[in-house]
Design the sequence.
């Protein structure tokens, strides 16, 4: 699970807000899909750049691209993924985000809904992003309350 960081919580919420306000969403477009929208918030890359980088790199969606990620490659999409990992995400987070499949996040929903999330559904993505932001924020608050914030420099 991602490291609880304020910048990541805010990026997740900004992504959900933009999608709710009608930002172009297209699951098959690497810059306008689940991961693509979050990548736009966490990096300086546009949806067009992200999509072009994905086409230059390897075949497959974000889950497949992330599984093949190499931090040393300097391939354009690997640089995007590196920036996202630097923001506190893990490779698994990106794979789960693309599929809306992280069980820690899904457990926050009633049982019937948790089994109905669709990877290419804007409304489901918005719910997932907000639940993820809430989860990370709760973890961050817990760290602060435990005084762990000062012993863990990656938390801020």
Sequence:
């Amino acid at each position: 699970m991602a490291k609880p960081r304020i910048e990541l919580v805010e990026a997740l919420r900004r992504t959900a807000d933009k999608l709710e306000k009608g930002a172009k969403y297209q699951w098959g477009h690497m810059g306008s899909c689940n991961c693509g929208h979050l990548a736009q918030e966490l990096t300086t890359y546009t949806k067009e750049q992200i999509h072009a980088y994905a086409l230059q790199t390897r075949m497959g969606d974000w889950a497949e691209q992330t599984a093949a990620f190499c931090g040393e490659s300097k391939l354009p999409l690997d640089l995007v993924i590196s920036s996202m990992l630097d923001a506190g995400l893990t490779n698994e987070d990106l794979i789960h985000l693309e599929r809306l499949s992280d069980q820690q996040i899904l457990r926050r929903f009633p049982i019937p809904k948790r089994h109905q999330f669709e990877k290419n559904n804007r409304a489901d993505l918005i719910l997932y992003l907000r639940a993820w932001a809430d989860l990370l924020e709760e973890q961050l608050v817990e760290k602060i309350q435990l005084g762990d914030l000062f012993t863990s420099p990656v938390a801020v």
